[in-house]
Amino acid sequence: MTRISPFAAGLTGRCPRCGEGEMFSGFLKIAPSCDACGQDFSNADIGDGAAVFVMFIAGFGAVIPALLIDIAYRPPIWVHFAYGIPIILFLSVFLLRPMKGLLFAYQYHHKAEEARFPPGRE
Questions:
Q1: What are phi and psi of 33, to 5 degrees?
Q2: Whole-angstrom distance, CA of residue 115 vs CA of residue 46
Q3: DSSP H or E stretch at residue 62
Q4: Which of 2, 10, 43, 51 is most buried (CB neighbours < 10 A)?
Q5: Residue 8 in this model has a pLDDT that exceeds 70
Q6: Is residue 17 a contact partner of residue 44, using CB atoms and an 8 Å limit?
Q7: Residue 18: is it exposed, middle or buried by C-beta count within 10 angstroms (0-12/13-18/19+)?
Q8: Pair 89, 95: CB distance under 8 Å
Q9: Above 60 in pLDDT, residue 1?
Q10: What's the pLDDT band for 43 if we cut at 50, 70, 90?
Q11: What is the pLDDT of residues 70-113, one digit of tens each?
């Protein structure tokens, strides 16, 4: 069996096990299983990790140009809103699915799961 890169599988939304099946059943919903190899995805728990990374990236993608434009031209605040809001919306929508896929693929690759305590240590 060929080793699948978790980076490539995550960014393309493919199964991290076989690289053929779809990882998502909706825009952001992880499929219950791979339609090609049958790998069970029910233990997938990405949480808000993808959203946090996307917020940082989109924030920098909007703040850096805002600072540069403000220093160079001193435009009114509506100019910042006029280009900042579309940049943030575009980056958020464009990056959220690949980032969620990437985190899920790395979670699968490293066999990450919920922490378990030995009996009597709850």
A1: -160, 165
A2: 14
A3: helix 49-73
A4: 10
A5: yes
A6: no
A7: middle
A8: no
A9: no
A10: confident
A11: 999 999 999 999 999 999 999 999 999 999 999 999 999 998 88
Lookup: tokens for 101: 């896929």
pLDDT at 118 over 90: no
Specify the residue for token string 């059943």.
25
Distance of CA 117 to the CA centre of its chain: 29
Cβ-based neighbour number of residue 7 at 10 Å: 12
Mean pLDDT score across all residues of the chain: 91
pTM score, whole prediction: 0.85
Residue with tokens 């995550």: 10
CB 15 within 8 A of CB 21: yes
SS3 content of the chain, % helix, strand, coil (to 5): 55, 5, 40
What are the contacts of 41-50 at 24+ separation with CB within 8 A? 41/104, 43/113, 44/104, 44/107, 44/108, 45/107, 45/114, 46/100, 46/103, 46/104, 46/107, 49/103, 50/96, 50/99, 50/100, 50/102, 50/103
